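Category: protein sequence paired with discrete backbone structure
Discipline: computational structural biology
Format: plain text, a pair of labelled lines
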Amino acid sequence: MHTIHPIIQGLKGGLIVSAQAYPGEPMRTPDTMARVALAAQQGGAVAIRCQGLADIAAIKGQVDVPVIGLWKEGHEGVYITPTLRHARCCIAAGCDIVAIDATRRPRPDGRTYAQTVAALHEEGAIVMADCGSLADAEQAALAGSDILSTTLSGYTGEREKTDGPDFELLKDMVREFSDFPVICEGRIHTPDQLAQVMECGAWAGVVGTAITHPTTITSWFAARTPQGSAQ
């Protein structure tokens, strides 16, 4: 039986908000992301997912809910917390849970996914496995990951990118790995979609863009105006 950490128990049935901004964007400062995270907590988020060491530290200093930290480096292949070093740095910055790429692709430091998880568990870390397929989830489960997530579905070439959440993968993961908390992340854009995710058996749902990325949200609305549709 897979043991579920008390921090993860506290996420069950809740909304996790991803507060991330990228270089060149107007909100790309740790202080801004910390304020966004605090606003999300006040709105009912049970945890915050964030990217980058400065953001992790700033957000951890503002919120009372668990922080899921990651470090993106690069844009192709394994770039979400790609190495053991990246994961350790996220933990040192203050995250409660570290999210790492759990795909079967080669890792930059030459370690296997299982070796990375084993090293992190020896140091007392809680690991969230960002998966892109059912086979990834199987690898993550065998490695003893603490959380399985659909984060990378549609981004690794194994599965088609769906318009909304990958409900099929979510259902398959919930069915195949019933002992594990399975979190749905990726393209949850409406409250109704989040409700559907919960109905499919997700432990929790992660919403990012639709809550914390005003540039994209604005573009959705602008596209429905006469000016936007004419472009």
In short: Residues 86 and 98 are 10 Å apart (CA to CA). The two ends are 55 Å apart (CA to CA). The mean pLDDT is 96. The chain has one domain: 11-230.
